[in-house]
Specification:
Elements: H1 2-13, H2 31-40, H3 45-59, H4 63-77, H5 83-102, H6 106-123, H7 126-142, H8 146-162, H9 167-183, H10 187-204, H11 207-223, H12 227-244, H13 247-263, H14 267-284, H15 287-303, H16 307-323, H17 327-343, H18 347-380, H19 385-424, H20 428-436, H21 438-452, H22 463-478, E1 484-491, H23 494-501, H24 503-520, E2 526-531, E3 534-540, H25 544-559, E4 563-565, E5 568-570, E6 574-581, H26 586-602, E7 608-610
Parallel strand pairs: 6-7
Antiparallel strand pairs: 1-3, 1-6, 2-3, 4-5
Helix pairs in contact: 1-13, 1-15, 1-17, 2-5, 3-4, 3-5, 4-5, 4-26, 5-6, 5-7, 6-7, 6-18, 7-8, 7-9, 8-9, 9-10, 9-11, 10-11, 11-12, 11-13, 12-13, 13-14, 14-15, 15-16, 15-17, 16-17, 17-18, 18-19, 18-22, 23-24, 24-25
């Protein structure tokens, strides 16, 4: 049973370890900003309100609404100059970086963090400049751009070392630099930076940073083969996390200690760690952490012969991945379920779970590719356009090759595992039947791909599909195919519908709007649910006037189509902002459309406004 235990633990921990990279999510004005605003008056009050609105949305978990509020704040500032404007703009940019990182758009987050760091530098705010560079480090690390991540971390470290009052930022910079070296296989350099991170974290007095620095140093020591030292660091981190009430830190340490214990054959000890970690995460409300802890514990339960409880945990984890859109974690859970079914003599169910895990990996790979294309478009809008473009081309070529190799490895792994699994339980004949049913499998794969690109409530394209299409249209425009237009629409006073009639009624309103979009647009157009009550129309080969006409037709159709609800007929209207993309710069075009939409809301709603 040793193999089953260690395999499930490994699968569950492959997607762990994001603790040090979690975006701060802090979108509140700093004390220094407040003093600047007090000195300069109230000219920037509206932008500050958008910042606070974003903080509320972020606290409620609505990152899409938070991003929209932050973009409105940046538009509100416009070309305002002066220290107060720069300070507000810096806060907005850093918050935008946090929000986009949380939305999985690391490339766009990197640009926002870079802008925040530059603005902080101009203001002479060393702490904020280091914070921006640390955000930039995280984003570049996630993108696999390790050389640039290391450069940003060392820039942050240099700034922090020049200001003795910034030991926290210095510790964080060493922490991230150590993780870059660790991922590059440079264990000695990683340990050097991580040891410095621990010393600086002790000086900072920030318990949460010391917990993570100690834990990460323990990970590096484990990789170097010094498990005794690794356990000592992690035990210290665990005690500190318990004392400071850092439940996330406690959970991370317990899971890591369980992995070390399992590798050393101390199975009972590993199980105690995993039981406690699972109980903590159930109370934390962090869906991703709950999934990981459940998958880890299930692996140990399977190895101990407690298949029924393991199945219950994995079913619970699977429900969380589906309700919280966690595809990478869902792949791990389904792979674990496949092993559980195989061990229980249910090869058909095992094969089905394995096939779904494979489809998820393919979908994740496609989404990663789409994000890289979106990142490319975002970089076009950066102030360092020419300097970064060649680097990005080289990085993308390397990443594309890496992606192809990963897909190939996963494809061979899946096929090999499925064959071994099924033949191991005496179903060679069943496998041959599956092979003869290749057409059915192909159809199932096509259906899975279609579902992965569709919003389940409205039946329109989802945001991922829209991003792919935007990248395609941008490329066509750059190659001389002509401009295309965007129309960004938002259902008017949608929150009041939910508040007054309930979310089920709100869902019906969204479905009604989607129906008007689907039957009004041309076949070559794309209508997508962009987020919440916001919809996006992509109109190829369309200029400003044509886009306004198309949006106006949709607006009229929505207004003429009231929604029936509990013997009432609810009048629904929507406001649209239109912009034309003439040079392939999608990010700028989206900002223009959003600004036009916001103008339409300010002017009274239920109208179409075109960007100048």
């Amino acid at each position: 049973m040793r193999t089953g235990r260690s395999t499930l633990l490994l699968l569950a921990t492959l997607v762990a370890g994001s603790g040090p990279f979690a975006a701060s999510g802090s979108v509140s004005p700093s004390p220094s900003l407040e003093s600047l605003l007090e000195a300069d008056g109230r000219d920037l009050a509206a932008a500050r309100e958008h910042l606070r609105e974003a903080a509320e949305h972020s606290a409620a978990g609505d990152r899409v609404a938070a991003e929209q509020a932050l973009r409105r704040g940046l538009d509100q500032i416009g070309r305002e100059t002066g220290a107060a404007a720069a300070a507000v703009r810096r806060e907005l940019q850093h918050a935008l970086g946090d929000t986009r990182y949380a939305l999985g758009r690391a490339g766009e987050a990197a640009l926002a963090y870079r802008a925040a760091a530059d603005l902080a530098g101009a203001l002479g705010d060393r702490g904020a400049a280091a914070d921006g560079l640390l955000g930039l480090t995280v984003a570049r690390f996630v993108l696999g751009r390790y050389d640039e991540a290391l450069e940003a971390a060392l820039d942050a470290l240099r700034i922090a070392e020049e200001a003795p009052q910034l030991p926290f930022q210095a510790s964080r910079a060493c922490h991230l630099a150590g993780m870059v070296h660790r991922n590059l296989g440079r264990t000695e350099e990683a340990l050097s930076y991580l040891s410095r991170s621990v010393a600086l974290a002790r000086a900072s007095g920030v318990a949460s940073q010391l917990v993570r620095a100690l834990n990460e140093e323990g990970n590096a020591l484990h990789l170097s083969g010094d498990d005794a030292a690794a356990i000592a660091r992690k035990q210290e981190a665990l005690e500190l996390a318990r004392a400071s009430g850092d439940l996330s830190g406690v959970s991370d340490c317990l899971n890591d200690l369980a992995v070390i214990a399992t590798g050393s054959g101390r199975d009972a000890e590993a199980r105690r760690y995993l039981e406690e970690a699972h109980e903590l995460t159930r109370r934390s409300g962090d869906a991703r952490a709950r999934v990981i802890s459940a998958a880890n514990l299930a692996g140990t339960l399977v190895a101990d012969g407690e298949a029924a409880r393991a199945r219950a945990l994995l079913d619970e984890a699977l429900a969380l991945t589906e309700s919280h859109d966690l595809p990478a974690e869902e792949e791990v859970v389904r792979s674990s379920l496949a092993l559980l079914h195989a061990g229980a003599g249910r090869p058909g169910e095992a094969f089905a779970e394995l096939l779904r895990a494979y489809e998820l990996r393919q979908s994740i790979a496609r989404d990663e590719a789409a994000r890289r294309v979106a990142d490319l478009n975002a970089v076009y809008d950066s102030e360092r356009r020419e300097a970064e473009l060649e680097l990005l081309r080289r990085d993308r070529a390397i990443q594309d090759l890496t992606l192809e190799r990963e897909q190939g490895r996963r494809r061979w792994w899946t096929a090999g595992f499925a064959v071994a699994l099924l033949f191991a339980v005496g179903l060679g004949a069943g496998l041959r039947m599956k092979i003869r049913s290749a057409r059915a499998l192909a159809e199932a794969k096509r259906r899975v791909e279609e579902l992965a690109r569709t919003d389940p409530l409205t039946g329109l394209a989802n945001r991922r599909h829209a991003l792919e299409r935007l990248a395609q249209e941008a490329l066509r425009t750059e190659r001389g195919a002509g401009p295309f237009a965007l129309a960004l629409g938002d259902v008017d006073r949608f929150k009041s519908v939910n508040d007054r009639h309930g979310h089920e009624c709100g869902d019906r309103v969204l479905a009604s709007v989607a129906g008007v979009l689907a039957k009004t647009l041309r076949t070559l157009d794309l209508a997508a649910r962009w987020g919440g009550e916001e919809f996006l129309m992509i109109l190829p080969g369309t200029g400003r006037d044509g886009a306004v006409r198309a949006a106006e037709k949709v607006r009229e159709g929505i207004a003429a189509n009231p929604v029936s609800w509990e013997e009432q007929r609810l009048q629904v209207t929507a406001t649209f902002g239109v912009a034309v993309c003439e040079d392939g710069d999608v990010d700028v075009c989206l900002r223009l459309a959003d600004a036009a939409l916001y103008q339409g809301k300010e002017e009274g709603r239920n109208r179409v406004v075109a960007a100048p």
